[in-house]
Amino acid sequence: MSSVAGGITVVYSMQVVAILILVLASINVGNLLLSRAVERSKETAIRVALGAPRARLIGQMLWESIIICTLGGVIGLLMVAWGLEITQGITAGFFSGKMPFWWVFNVDAFTIKLFIAFVVSTILVTGLLPAWKNSGEDFNDALRDGTRGALSKKSGRLNKILVISEILISLIVLIGASVMVLSSYVRTHADIGVETDGILVADVALSDSRYDIASKKSQFINTLQSRLENSTGVRDVMISSSLPGEYARISNINIEGKEYNDNKRKPETNYIVISSGTLSKLGVILQQGRYFNSSDKGDDKKTVIVSESFAKKHFPEQSALGKRLKIADTDKQNPNWLTIVGIVEHTRQGDAARAEFPSVFRPYSQDPSVKVTVAMRSDLDKTIVTKILRDTLSSIDNALPAYRIKTYTQSVDRITASVRFISSVLVIFGIAAVVLAGSGIYGVMSNTISQRTQEIGIKRALGADEKHITKEFLMAGVKQLLWGGIPGALIGGALGFAMGTVMLIGIKAIVIITLTTVIIIGSIVLLAAYLPTKKALQLEPSEALHHE
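and the corresponding structure tokens:
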């Protein structure tokens, strides 16, 4: 997964959000169908009393669930197939080369099995179980439960439970989805520490056979940089094993004066080799000390520059200048002590999951690598700069090609491409969660109040005013909001905090998300109580009493 930005954390996060959305959708379907089954309990009891066979009653009630769930499932499966086809094309852009053969997005046998399992289980829960229960209970009790002017006790209890469960699950889902969306936004908009506009980058790999010693590699890089900088239209040339924003090699280090054993792992850092002047040309600001200069050239010199994050992490109470460290995996037999001569502002290497990871920079001549990235700042067209680079390479060594030629912005965007795609998907998930939560809560509460239309008509006929009735139903909604909202906010906040600790989201943002979500759900609950009540109050008492 290192070749694709976002890493496994984003993949797991997306799966969590998808599961939460599925749970919310399932609860919505189940709640509405169960509520409808309860409404028809009296109808079922009358049919039983008249001698209707139980199997026929179950079959009639089950067909409704079969049709709804199957039709919805088939539409969902077709949308999945369409979405996977789009995803296949988008993910191809995450890789600089050919996409691995195992990255295939399509509807396979496993997907079909999951589809069948979900549809069948939904039919059983929302259709068969209510039908079996309604058709098997004592029809005398069912006929006595409730009167013409009031909601039955069983229906009233179940509807309250349905609304509370909707509020509870909706809060958890919305808080979790919001944290994911915010995390994705942070990851894709994190500052890498340099400006990327007007820079073309390309990779160059030196062959081991022709450049078998350090001096040959250094001489080639010096010649390449000098000739490119003297080319018309090219202002700056930066050469590095990894530019800011790209993934860098991670190395273990030893810091002089500190002991490391099996119980204390050696610290890790980004290890980057660069040509002279690269940091200053990229606009990486010097905080203390100096940049590399001609005195640092040669493999006998032992100097490094560290990022500000490195200095704060390893030398919090003192200046890092003059301190020494070893790169543990560059020369394991005889590692060299390297002196810190400068401290620069922090730059990000890779995706935002490594945003605070410290870096160590070393002159190319001291530890030359076989692969480098050449960055050229120019106002010329990309094709012209590309020709200049290839002609210059050919003039030095016609066997060396330049590859992966693109703008610096495109290079950085490729690192965050997967996260940006997932961020867009999560926004869709968030919108879907709001729609599902709103429709589910409104549907159940509206249905509950609709069943109490006759009760409202009786109250008005006995002299109750509209304000009193409206207040009564709003207070009932507030009570349900509290019963479902308090535990939902606590569980959702805890889930959001757990996600935030690994996804760069602070507790302040989690609190704001939780409060905002509670306000949104609370508004939906109040509207779901107010609008149906107002509609029922528009009926004359005589009309309300005859409402079915």
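(Above: one complete record from the training split.) DSSP finds 16 helices and eleven strands in the chain.
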